[in-house]
Amino acid sequence: MQIIGEKINGTRKRVAQAIADRDADFIKNLAAKQAEAGSTWLDVNAGTHPDREPDDLIWLIETIQPVVDIPLCLDSANPKALQIAIKAVEKTPMINSISGEPDRLENVLPLVAEHNCQVIALAMDDKKIPETGEQRIEIVRKVLAETRAAGVPDARVYCDPLAMTIATNPNSAVVAFQTMQAIKQEFPEVHLTVGLSNISFGLPARKYVNRTFLALAMQAGLDSAILDPLDRDMRAAILTAELVLGRDDYCLNFVRAARAGAFDEKV
Amino acid sequence: MQIIGEKINGTRKRVAQAIADRDADFIKNLAAKQAEAGSTWLDVNAGTHPDREPDDLIWLIETIQPVVDIPLCLDSANPKALQIAIKAVEKTPMINSISGEPDRLENVLPLVAEHNCQVIALAMDDKKIPETGEQRIEIVRKVLAETRAAGVPDARVYCDPLAMTIATNPNSAVVAFQTMQAIKQEFPEVHLTVGLSNISFGLPARKYVNRTFLALAMQAGLDSAILDPLDRDMRAAILTAELVLGRDDYCLNFVRAARAGAFDEKV
């Protein structure tokens, strides 16, 4: 399971503050902790302020890179910010994200292709988020046609089937699972990723919903997720799901984590 | 999700003691609590003492019936004990269990047919427990041919694909899931059930393994399980899996359980 650490995100209040204050220690600490906790990439989102975003993004990248060995995942809806930021990164980054939206395909995809990036591809376009798995697959097909045409191998594409909250649509997790299975069947090289935070929006006991959704999504083929790697429950859920799904040889990771206290009752 | 409450089992030390002492209060309490916690059936196992089993089973049945409204699941490997016990039950019981073993098919199946019982059918025969899903399906096919020939409708058969511990075979949960999916595909009317206790045998943090296995098995089609209905973690896992799998209309059960404290941190 590949983890995209989600915590350095300028839409979160505390991080926005740290960016505004140029509080490098806060950001470095958040980066180092997420890397230690096993992240494969660190998502870096400078917030949505159009004039400040490129500068903020560069500052974040230059602050984070000296303290971690893992690559970044540049998270922006702004092709210009990405274009500038990509020059500041040392390791080939992941790009978050493209979708069926023509603007993203036209302006972000060439960057992905040119710099050999991995890229998150959302199963949505410029209309509303499709309700059915079949409609989402349709969009994924279009996006994959474009990534292939741009020379990006399927194995560098991380499809996000979109997990909307169960609170307003009881089938939204099921639709996400069906979309994942259909993508895996049609595009076996493509990776599957998902942003977890929406699935339980508006519900009580959210961590129960999130960890169960994650385990079931792993059974449906999920091999990556955008989440908080410092969340103890989430790490326990991933370790356990990998064990139960036969992906933990000799139960080594699970038993080692148990010895280190990963499953102990909270004190 | 239909629950077969597992606690009244004479192979457990405390229950064996209560049976030996004819401690009716202890048994009544165990029965009432499991029924309150939402069991569909109560498993009743009098232990494995051949001379005492029929008497003990009758005593258990007569002790339990006055305090619960739900049917029993008569759990015995001894056809004679079942034959005697079935006369003492008021509501049509489930029988635990038949399998591909000729002795069980010959001696237990006629009872199931005669009394219109539900029956648990294990995916094993008199040889060792088969390692692969394909071998287990082979046995299920033979058993279903027999139950059909005896006039037992598929909808009264609860197939147990067998969950062996992951500690000695990392694929054992995966094999169980594959077996479940194959059974559902070939025999859509058949129910799926499973004894949960073995899956995590020999591992640390067993409750994590058990609840994750249960959620993933529900995704694979499990609609019943033999478990401890008083186990708070297990109930939370079932409620959450039903929510995520789109089987909880308007999130009603989940939200109601959350309000009643089902997901609160332990105090």
Keywords:
homodimer; alpha/beta; TIM Barrel; 11 helices
Give structural notes.
The structure is a homodimer of 267-residue chains. Chain A has 3 domains: 1-91; 98-229, Dihydropteroate synthase-like (TIM Barrel), CATH 3.20.20; 231-262, no CATH class. In chain A, 45% of the residues lie in helices and 12% in strands. The first copy, chain A, has 11 helices and 8 strands. In chain A, strand 2, helix 3 and strand 3 (72-75) form a beta-alpha-beta unit. Chain A has 267 residues and is α/β, with parallel strands linked by helices. In chain A, helix 3 runs parallel beside helix 4, helix 7 (133-149) runs parallel beside helix 8 and helix 9 packs parallel to helix 10.
